[in-house]
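Subject: Glycerol-3-phosphate dehydrogenase (NAD(P)+)

B.,
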Amino acid sequence: MTGCGLGGAVKSVIALAVGIASGMRLGDNTKAMLIARGLYDIHRLGMFFTASPRHADVLLIPRAL
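Prediction pasted inline below.
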């Protein structure tokens, strides 16, 4: 599995968890926490399996979307 495939699969699991939290009416803070922790976990998985540290630091730079 490539890095993009792994990231996409984990992203889908996180989206499912956020959808469940939204359906349970747990609030915006809970959804934000799930998304933030999910992004952190995607970064760590990418570093462990595929990404080089030199290129993965781009994910940590805050920027406007």
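Residues 8 and 25 are 26 Å apart (CA to CA).

T.
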